[in-house]
Design a protein that fits this description.
alpha/beta, Aspartate Aminotransferase, domain 2, Aspartate Aminotransferase, domain 1, seven-stranded mixed sheet, globular, binds pyridoxal-5'-phosphate, pyridoxal phosphate, cystathionine gamma-lyase activity, Cys/Met-Metab_PyrdxlP-dep_enz, transferase, pyridoxal phosphate binding
């Protein structure tokens, strides 16, 4: 029987290339997968929310790079954060750093508190303060090292130990350093999260998140949440993240080298009161950075301008090679007046500028600050 036009339009566009061998993985946009006559599915791909080739590639890759057994990809860093927090139960308590990616605090206040999760914020550089903040129902200690935006460091080994002594999990948000510079699981952390929007993607053109861990039981919980909530990345987004991973090491090595040089320049400038960068000897936890980090100190820094909020903001707008925008980790340099982005609850100093250093030539970047500050 010859199919009619409408039927032909469908059948003639079917994928029939089962024997091609592309070097770069194709983007498998299909939302669903054909079942074999015996009831099985090739490679167990059934439905794209549950799993698909592009997602599987980056999950396996990120697990390996973070030295973990399991990785799960999400549609954004925040959906990865949410998945971890949804694995807790009503009544549980979480300890957050005082300096933290602001949206996580907002998620607690607006969504998780009404569901019965509570939190406290402590200065995690102070282990005694952290120990004092642990309650009988503390289920999780959340770590950002370096923290956003003040680049405070936490001792992952010590915090994990303290967490485990109190039957809590230690979660590390490793977005700012990437596994090139820091592997939290090696220091005893239970779970690592990433906003892959940042360095993994690396080109400011895709959103994504990832959760990495070793424990089989927690992994199966996270997997259920991933598949049932459905905050999964699209195949094209996974493809972009996978492509970013291929150049991650090259990009962040250059970015970190540039950041270090810029930090040293800014530290000497009279208009700059303080530079927060763990690579500098003046950073209060420089030695911890040396012990906990490899291959460099990362490409994020923040500075306190010797002046008012308005002066700090104005300087950011005078820069030519640093775009005034939120986010970080792309190949292009960005600058942000963080407090005005975070809003009225912000604990960030109002003369702070957050800087994400890109891969441009360092002499241009320094000259740009020279003209903006003078
Ligand atoms: C950006 C960011 C997040 C949130 O990730 P999204 O991809 O924007 O949802 C979480 N933690 C840190 C440290 C971040 O920088």
């Amino acid at each position: 029987m010859k199919p009619k036009f409408e039927t032909l339009a469908i059948k003639s566009t079917e994928n029939t290339f089962s024997d091609v061998n592309p070097v770069s993985i194709p983007i498998y946009l299909s939302s669903t997968y054909k079942r074999n006559a015996n009831g099985t599915y090739n490679n167990d791909f059934v439905y794209s929310r549950n799993d698909n080739p592009n997602r599987q590639v980056i999950e396996k890759s990120i697990a390996k790079l973070e030295n973990g057994r399991y990785a799960f990809a999400f549609s954004s860093g925040m959906s990865a954060v949410s998945a971890i927090l949804q694995s807790l139960k009503t009544g549980d308590h979480v300890i957050l750093p005082d300096d933290i990616y602001f949206t996580i605090k907002k998620l607690f206040n607006e969504v998780l508190k009404p569901w019965g999760l509570s939190y406290s914020q402590v200065d995690m550089t102070d282990l005694q303060a952290l120990e004092n903040a642990i309650k009988p129902n503390t289920a999780m200690i959340w770590v950002e090292t370096p923290s956003n935006p003040q680049l405070k460091l936490s001792d992952i080994k010590a915090v994990s130990k303290l967490a485990h002594k109190n039957n809590a999990l230690c979660v590390v948000d490793n977005t700012w350093l990437t596994p090139v510079f820091q592997n939290p699981l090696n220091f005893g952390a239970d779970i690592v999260i990433h906003s892959t929007t940042k360095y993994f993607g690396g080109h400011s053109d895709v959103l994504g998140g990832a959760v990495v861990l070793d424990d089989e039981k927690i992994a199966s919980k996270i997997k259920s949440i991933q598949q049932l909530n459905g905050a999964v990345p699209a195949p094209f987004d996974c493809w972009l993240i996978g492509r970013g991973i291929q150049t991650l090491h090259l990009r962040v090595s250059k970015q970190s080298e540039n950041a270090f040089k810029l930090a040293k320049y800014l530290e000497k400038h009279p208009k700059v009161k303080q530079v927060n960068y763990p690579g500098l000897k003046s950073h209060p936890q420089h030695n911890l950075a040396i012990n906990q980090q490899d291959n460099g100190f990362g490409a994020m820094l923040s500075i306190l301008i010797d002046g008012t909020k308005e002066e700090a903001f104005k300087i950011s707008t005078k820069l030519a090679y640093f775009t005034t925008a939120t986010s970080l980790g792309g190949v292009e340099s960005l600058v942000e007046h963080r407090q005005s982005v975070e809003g009225p609850d912000s604990l960030t100093p109002n003369n702070l500028l957050r800087i994400s250093v890109g891969i441009e030539h360092i002499e241009d970047l320094i000259a740009d600050w020279e003209q903006a500050l003078n």
